[in-house]
Amino acid sequence: MTTTTITINNHRDLDALVAEHVMGWRWWTAKVWVAGYGKDGTDSSFLLPTDIDDHPVDLVKPKLCVGDCPKPFSDWQDYIPHYSTKISSAWQVVTAMEETHHWQLETLSDSDAPYWVGITAHGGSGFKPDHYSLALTMPEAICLVALAAKGVGVKKKE
User: Fold this and answer.
1) Helix (H) or strand (E) holding 97
2) pLDDT at position 112, please?
3) Tell me, what DSSP letter sits at residue 10?
4) Which residue of 30, 67, 132, 144 pairs with 118 in a disulfide if CB–CB is 3.0 to 4.6 A?
């Protein structure tokens, strides 16, 4: 499998990668009108679940503001669960991949990155993981190893 390495700025970028590459979300493009932010009638892209029943614009319409907006329209990430920082959201990643992969989660008390996660495809090499990750938190380690299993490497912007 070819691995593509993507540089991220923060945890929300990591969450978006997990939504797209692991959870199956896809990019939708729609025209949006947000007064005062140069977005009047221009195409904007949103990462949304593939199982939505509504049209993507109907889903994001409540987020659009007219007139005095408190901040520029860039909150499409508000829809994405906090996979890399909340264990309940990270567990959705484990659940989504458990039919095809075995997970091994451990804590290391004597490490600067105390959370270790390994993942092996079903029918793989047993206890030797195909991919593993060390991180400061368990949710982050889960996300990094899930992306690695999907052929996506992550590099943090320095």
Assistant:
1) helix 87-97
2) 84
3) S
4) 132
Are 117 and 145 contacting, i.e. CB atoms less than 8 angstroms apart? yes
Q: What are phi and psi of 137, to 5 degrees?
A: -135, 155
Token pair listed for 104: 């091994």
At 10, the amino acid letter reads N
Question: 1-11: b or e for each residue (b if 16 or more CB lie within 10 Å)?
Answer: eeeeeeebeeb
Cβ within 8 Å of residue 10, ≥6 positions away: none
Sheet holding 101-107, edge to edge: 101-107, 115-121, 131-135
How many angstroms separate the first and last alpha carbons of the chain?
27
Tokens 């969450």 belong to 15
44 near 30, Cβ under 8 Å? yes
The residue written with tokens 């320095």 in the block is 158
Averaged confidence pLDDT in the chain: 77
Residues 85 and 141 sit within 8 Å (Cβ to Cβ):
no
